[in-house]
């Protein structure tokens, strides 16, 4: 069974940085595109970024373009989300999932969700 575990969240001041990790357990990530999603209190879960299985294709939500970078290290069975210039509106629980990476970064194209890691951007 596919199991993904997120880590790296925390409290950071506006303008700061965090790097999230999504580690696979019990299977190899090589064959899967991975997406990052976030959910703020009272809001729908939204797609943030995704990366193809070989890392050759990436997509980003307009709200994070130029600030976030997704990458993967298949040797470590891990996908990363580097988040720079963080804003209060980036606050939420961040999830990773396995699926199909398209420009839409749609929730319905992903499954095997992790438990999430909390990111709070506040002064």
Mean pLDDT: 95
Instruction: Give the end-to-end Cα distance, rounded to a whole number of Å.
Output: 40 Å
**Strand element count:** 11
Shape: globular
H and E string:
EEEEEEEEEEE
Q: Specify the number of helices.
A: 0
Beta-strand content estimate = over 45%
Gyration radius, to the nearest Å?
A: 13 Å
Query: What ranges have pLDDT less than 50 throughout 5 or more consecutive residues?
Result: none
Q: What is the percent of helical residues?
A: under 10%
Task: Profile the largest sheet.
Answer: 7 strands, mixed
Structural class: mainly beta
Task: Describe it.
Strands 2, 4, 5, 6, 9, 10 and 11 form a seven-stranded mixed β-sheet that branches. The chain has a four-stranded antiparallel β-sheet with strand order 1-3-8-7, with no helix packed on it. The N and C termini lie far apart (40 Å). The relative contact order is 0.32. Strand 5 and strand 6 (58-60) form a beta hairpin. The protein has strands at 3-7, 10-12, 18-25, 33-39, 46-51, 58-60, 68-73, 78-83, 92-99, 110-111, 117-121. The protein has 123 residues and is mainly beta. The protein is built from no helices and eleven strands. The mean pLDDT is 95.
Briefly, what is this?
The protein is mainly beta and 123 residues long. 0% of the residues lie in helices and 48% in strands.
Key terms:
123 residues, mainly beta, 48% strand, globular
